[in-house]
Amino acid sequence: MSTIPQIVMCQVESSQFAAIGHVPELNVLAIQFHPKKSTGQSDIYHYQNFSADLFAEFLGAESQGKFFIHRIKKFADQFPYSKIDQAAFNHTAPQPAVKPASLAEAAPVKLSKELLAGLLTGREYGKEMMKEEEIQAKAAGLIVIFGASDDLMEFRGFVDDERGAPTIALLDAKGLLPFREDIQHDDDALKDYFARAPQVRAVDALWAKEDGYSWTYRTDVPHATFEIVEGGEPYCRGIVIDVADLGGAA
């Protein structure tokens, strides 16, 4: 089964774009624009902070084009947007739109590590996550790990912390454990520690160990990966862990 996040796209009648979709668990609006004459390719942009109620209003508007101009495009600070890597998502072929009274009444979908990782892929260094995304990741029990500078390991979501790196971070169902200098660089000490504490799992932060990346991570905990870029070039391959895989609550 594919872990690529799926976004259902709805056809719209507009001279500006062909289809729109929504990710209610992250308040993300997807807009597929008409193909460019030069390339024939249809770009897709994601807009943040876009609620289910607002999407229902957008979908039901008499003119989606006017709604886009007057309610979305003019408010770039409120709805920050980015062109997305379409390989990181599965945007369905545009379907005929069903205009509901409110999409907020739909059954909520649990935010998964795969969906969150897909949404974070392509983010620029220094702008990895929005505050609302951190709050939603925390509520879903997801730990987001990525690198900063040449000596920091960042944690967001269920864990909100920062560690000097490269290092081995120790996690259990309650979150990030205190740093253990005594076992960081001693393989025998690490093996002994894990033998005595099987509930503890490790994430190894690797600096410049893989061609094309400054930061990568190694762990036996099930996880999804995402790519942070700097100036259009890969910078960090981060990971998302579900605390349920550490023995915590789903």
Question: What would you say this structure looks like, in words?
Answer:
- The protein is α+β, with helices and mostly antiparallel strands.
- Helices cover 20% and strands 33% of the residues.
- The chain contains six helices and 17 strands.
- Strand 9 (142-148) and strand 10 form a beta hairpin.
- The longest helix has 10 residues, at 187-196.
Features:
single chain, 250 residues, alpha+beta, six-stranded mixed sheet, five-stranded antiparallel sheet, 6 helices, 33% strand
Summarize the structure.
The chain is an alpha+beta fold and 250 residues long.
Low-confidence spans = 99-107
Instruction: Please give the alpha-carbon distance between the first and last residues.
Output: 20 Å
Give the overall pLDDT as a whole number.
86
Query: How much is the radius of gyration in Å?
Result: 20 Å
Number of helices: 6
* Helix vs. strand class: alpha+beta
Strand content: 25-35%
Major beta-sheet overview: 6 strands, mixed
Give the beta-strand count: 17
Helix content: 10-25%
Lateral strand order in the biggest sheet: 8-16-17-9-10-11
Order of helices and strands: EEEEEHHEEHEHEEEEEHHEEEE
Overall 3D form: elongated
Provide the fold topology.
Elements: E1 6-7, E2 9-11, E3 17-23, E4 28-33, E5 44-47, H1 52-60, H2 64-72, E6 81-83, E7 90-91, H3 113-120, E8 123-124, H4 131-139, E9 142-148, E10 152-157, E11 161-164, E12 168-172, E13 175-176, H5 181-184, H6 187-196, E14 201-207, E15 215-219, E16 224-230, E17 233-242
Parallel strand pairs: 1-7, 8-16
Antiparallel strand pairs: 2-3, 3-4, 4-5, 5-6, 9-10, 9-17, 10-11, 12-13, 12-14, 14-15, 16-17
